[in-house]
Amino acid sequence: MADGRGDEFLELFDDAAAAPGAAASPWPLLVADDDPAVHAVTRLVLRDVRFRDRPIEVIEAHSAAEAFDIMSRRPDIPVALVDVVMEKEDAGLRLVQRIRNELSNNLVRIILRTGQPGSAPERSVVLEYDINDYKEKQELTTDKLVTSVVTALRGHYALREVKKAYAELTQAQGRLAELEKLAALGGLVAGITHEVNTPIGTCVQAATHLQDVVGAARGKYEQETLTPSDFEEFLDEVAKVGTIIEAASQNAARLIGGFKTMAVDQASGARRPFKIAALIDDVLLALSPRLRKTQHRIEVDCPADEEIDSYPGALSQILTNLIMNSLVHGFDGIGRPGTMRIAVQPAGQPAGQQVMLTYSDDGRGIAAEHKLRVFEPFFTTKRGKGGSGIGLSMVYTLATETLGGTIAMESSEGSGVTFTLTLPRDAPGNR
Ligand SMILES: Nc1ncnc2c1ncn2[C@@H]1O[C@H](COP(=O)(O)OP(=O)(O)O)[C@@H](O)[C@H]1O
Ligand SMILES: [Mg+2]
Fold it and tell me: Which of the residues 91, 135, 199, 363 could staple to 252 if both were Cys, CB 3.0 to 4.6 A apart?
């Protein structure tokens, strides 16, 4: 449905619909038949028919080739009446095939007509190429032809509405995913700001203390009461404060550096080799202000040197989403401290080609009837209470498409959830 042709199609439709009643532009109806008499009769029968206040305009094609040419120029045609036998025995069937496959036009409703009773196309053709009606010509009395055409128009109209709704939904999903990403990045900023405050506070305190020490020493010096042991004490104190300031500012620089990498990774979506344990640390650090407000704990079991060449931004978004879901859904009102667990180990055949990351919590779990739906976009059990239902669908796309891995979920109500991610050590895509 995401092909360019379809969108163009949609616009044409919107234009037509934009002028209700006023212009009453007719519904174009393609009639493909090599018998001129059939065209004449069809025109006559459909002359006074109106659907949704618009008349029908018959467009004639006298061969399958001509019909294909018209269809390729007019993707807005809603219904085609196609004769089976034209240039060849099966020209009509081939035409349908080409409309569906070469033009990727799945919206035009097709009514097949044949003059030869009993030469019905195989059921498989009807099913495979989405032929919407099949009639023998003599069966097409005036009434039946009108009914058939109007039913096809109605079907087409409904399909276009569905397609439009689908396009809108896809757009909304994209916008929500962007918001979710921004929220994650915002959370990251808040987390790092909070963490960086500690070493910066230490530096400020140390600097103030230094001023006091210098002030005291200067006073004694000016009053000429500064003894050699006072001076030694002064030097010791200055050295000590210097060490403290150095350690604290290095700590701040490390935090900011980690934050910068994470933010750049998330914003740029860049691929690079990275250590999983370090990435988990960064994620937990960014989430620590939120985690500290709760009693819940998180346990990590990951070899320090486990390295993959992949997309760190995607993996940190996945982890952030899973952890936030445990806090928001899993531990919602459980009245006891919950435990989240992240375990990483080599996996795959041959050994070590992949890494397996297991994320679990011991929270409320997911009800059996929701288990198949949690990865669906917009599925949330917290609608109207801050849930968008985008988190896990994003996790799914990131895990399977961006990281090129798989993800599975296991849960039973009351005993928590487990997500198992299998990731190739060497992610797909260009370096
Ligand atoms: N750790 C969890 N424990 C229990 N339920 C969960 C957990 N994670 C996700 N879910 C369920 O899956 C649904 C979909 O999650 P998600 O796609 O992140 O959307 P949202 O968080 O906006 O509701 C949630 O509404 C919740 O019902
Ligand atoms: Mg969520």
Answer: 199
Q: What is the distance in angstroms between the CA of the first residue and the CA of the last residue of the chain? A: 30
- Alpha carbon distance 137, 125 (integer Å): 19
Looking at residue 117, its amino acid is P
Q: Which atom of ligand 1 is nearest to the CA of 379?
A: 14
Cα distance between residue 367 and residue 226, in whole Å:
76
The CATH fold assigned to 4-140 is Rossmann fold (3.40.50)
CA angle in degrees (0–180, nearest 5) for 315-386-366: 65
Report the distance separating Cα 190 and Cα 287, nearest Å: 9
pLDDT of 241 higher than 90: yes
18: Cβ contacts below 8 Å, ≥ 6 apart: none
Strands 307-310 and 54-61 come out as unpaired
How does residue 290 score in pLDDT terms, banded at 50, 70 and 90? Answer: confident
Report the C-alpha dihedral over residues 112, 114, 117, 118, rounded to 10 degrees. Answer: -50
Give mean pLDDT, residues 238-259.
90
Of ligand 1's atoms, which has the minimum distance to the CA of residue 387? Answer: 22
Residue whose structure tokens are 């210097």: 242
Ligand 2 geometric centre to CA of 187 (Å): 14
Select from 3.90.1010.10, 1.10.275.10, 1.10.10.10, 3.30.565.10 the CATH code of 274-424.
Answer: 3.30.565.10
Q: Is the CB of 427 under 6 A from ligand 1?
A: no
CA distances in angstroms from 309 to 2, 61, 285, 313, 429, listed in the order given: 31, 57, 22, 12, 11
Length of the chain equals: 431
Q: What is the mean pLDDT of the chain?
A: 88
User: Is the CB of residue 329 below 6 angstroms from any atom belonging to ligand 1?
Assistant: yes
Alpha helices in 223-360 (DSSP H): 228-268, 276-292, 312-325
- pTM tops 0.85, yes or no: no
Please work out whether the CB of residue 388 comes within 6 Å of at least one atom of ligand 1: yes
Query: Would you say 113 and 119 are in contact if contact means Cβ atoms under 8 Å apart?
Result: no
Listed residues: CB within 5 A of ion ligand 2: 325, 391
